[in-house]
Amino acid sequence: MPTTFSFPTTTLFEVGARRELRGWLAKLGSARPLIVTDASLTKTNAFALLQASLDGMNAAVFSEVRPNPEEADVEGAFKAYRDHGCDSVIAFGGGSAMDAGKVVRLRVKRPDKTLAQFEFGADWSGLAPLIAIPTTAGTGSEVGRSSVIIMDHRKQVIFPSPPGRGAGLQPWSFTGSNLALLMPFL
Prior knowledge:
By secondary structure, the protein is α/β, with parallel strands linked by helices. Helix content is 24%, strand content 22%. It is built from four helices and nine strands, in the order E-E-H-E-H-E-H-E-H-E-E-E-E. Strands 1-2-9-6-5-3-4 form a seven-stranded mixed β-sheet, covered by helices on one side. The longest helix is centred in the middle third of the chain and has 15 residues, at 95-109. The chain is globular, with a radius of gyration of 15 Å. The two termini are 15 Å apart.
């Protein structure tokens, strides 16, 4: 039986949690997710298992996230989301993929503004659904409400919606306890 907890992110923690992915996407109303990841992960068995879990869902992939995500990474993911008619985001990887995956939803909600033009104190409720699937243990970005993106050559902490005003960037998170087998959610 899976273990769940909130921080404020709802987290599913179970070996083989990937088997629950389609059901959670359905609960979130998602039929066409965008997977946000980095190029090296697309060559792994873990990515192949993720894709198998999404078989038949018309998932799109944006795999150009850099180790320290930049505004251009978010823009590329936004373009992929829009071009493929996506309705949700799956962030798959380490902290960089998590941060880029969370922030792309801001661009989806307000496509007329660049990140530099955003008013981060505005109400950001109603963002596209996000499921975070970490492949590392470290930053905790899969449960956090903020992201760090390089903008104009400087780190920018993006933390929309102060307490009491919307949901922030927190995702639904899938993890698993068998790290030695492949990666956390497998």
